[in-house]
Specification:
- It is built from two helices and two strands; from the N terminus they run αββα.
- By secondary structure, the protein is an alpha+beta fold.
- The protein has a two-stranded antiparallel sheet.
- A hairpin with a 6-residue loop joins strand 1 and strand 2.
- The two termini are 19 Å apart.
């Protein structure tokens, strides 16, 4: 995984007023910069998929992932091959 992927967080998936939003942004950006598929949420310790890892799938799983690169939850993209 590589490339410059911006911090992606849909408003309905992450409250913009979270006190740890900057920490989430930093953790995600650091993981993307290192080519990592996941990072540890700074508040809960849970593993979170990066936008890069989710983009490599070529489709949305419709589970509301925090960093989903797809604009809406509509399932597979047209022409995408799904698992």
């Amino acid at each position: 995984m590589s490339g410059d992927v911006p911090f992606l967080s849909h408003p309905e998936r992450v409250d913009a007023h979270r006190v740890d939003l900057a920490l989430i942004r930093d953790a995600h950006d650091r993981a993307v910069g290192l080519g990592q598929a996941v990072y540890r949420d700074p508040s809960t310790g849970l593993m979170v998929l990066t936008a890069v890892a989710l983009k490599e799938r070529d489709w949305c799983c419709e589970r509301g992932c925090r960093h989903c690169p797809y604009p809406t939850l509509h399932g597979p993209l047209p022409g995408a091959q799904n698992p």
